[in-house]
Amino acid sequence: MSLKSAIMDELNKGKGSQNTADKKENKNRYKPISNNTKAHQQSLSGLLIKSKLDRLFYLRDEKDEERAGLHASSIIASDNEFCYRAQVLSLLYKQNQGEQLPINLLRIFAAGNSIHEKWQSMFIKAGIAVDIEARHFSEEYELYFTPDAVINLDGTKYVVEIKSMNTFAYQKAKSHPSGQKQLQLYMHLLGIPQGFVLAEDKNNQDWQPFMCEYDPEQVLPFLGRLNQVQEMKKAFVKSKEIPPRKCKNSETSRAKSCNMRDACFNIGKGRVSI
Predict the structure, then answer these.
(1) Residues 79-119 pLDDT 10s
(2) Are residues 188 and 97 both part of a single domain?
(3) Which of 80, 143, 193, 257 lies in disulfide reach of 214, CB 3.0 to 4.6 Å?
């Protein structure tokens, strides 16, 4: 059964027993109900609805492609977060598709996605969109990358990364380092020498662009990682040598949020070849 089917079955539970419930309700219609009982029933009903609707955050759009392979967003991670083992495995085995992520994180992602969609829709309406979330692939590095947008303003192309921030972070920000790292790699791969991070305060919708010009020196560390991943992949295919784990076990918070958790620890669906 697919994840979508399982969720929809969960949402529809209880419909078959509705007639029985109606009969009981009619039988007890004239019995007085205390305020405490009413409040308890309201509370239970609310919790049930919240639980069922929270499951909707795990649904994927049918047009969304399954996440697979090496992605630019992983390559730009900090040294502390970057994991060679996960990147090598991602080239060979299927990834989790977000079903392992906690619900509060999925809600945050959904809120951020709505801001992306707002700006992307306006770029299209204005006729300045060149690409909107176009999925690219570098054969040299076996790398997928998907810029939020490429737009054309007054004859100049810009790569655009859209980022939402809370008011406190937004007011302090003079730049957006992680977004600008993404831009550097995207600009290198696309051959477009300018871009900007479109940073929006998600609390009051104020926004500002953090401009970025292509700097090959900033891209070198990422290219080094990509080349190293390719060498490690060859070693794994040839002799099953693989980089060590960064996580002590599969239950650490880091492991639980990793797309390669099942393949790394050979649990759940295990290692399913791409």
Answers:
(1) 999 999 999 999 999 987 655 567 777 777 777 788 999 99
(2) yes
(3) 193
- Length of the chain measured in residues: 274
Find the domain containing 31 and state its range.
3-58
Q: 83 and 19, same structural domain?
A: no
**Residues 102 and 35 grouped into a single domain:** no
CA distances from residue 223 to 99, 114, 230, 260 in whole angstroms, order as listed: 30, 32, 11, 22
Q: Among residues 14, 109, 11, 133, which one has the least CA distance to residue 60? A: 109
Could you tell me if 47 and 117 lie in one domain?
A: no
Q: Are 72 and 182 in contact (CB under 8 A)?
A: yes
How far apart (Å, rounded) are the C-alpha atoms in residues 263 and 267? 7
Same domain, 94 and 170: yes
Looking at the 3D structure of the chain, how many domains does it have?
2
Q: Is the pTM of this model over 0.90?
A: no
Q: 86 near 95, Cβ under 8 Å? A: no
- Spatial neighbors of 149 by CB under 8 A, at least 6 apart, are 119, 120, 123, 129, 130, 131, 132, 133, 159, 160, 162
Burial of 181 (0-12, 13-18, 19+ CB in 10 A): buried
Show the tokens assigned to 168: 């406190």
Structure token digits, residue 167: 């008011």
Beta partners for residue 160, in sequence order: 149, 196
CB 197 within 8 A of CB 210: yes
Looking up tokens 């969304």, which residue turns up?
Answer: 64
In angstroms, the CA 193 to CA 188 distance is 8
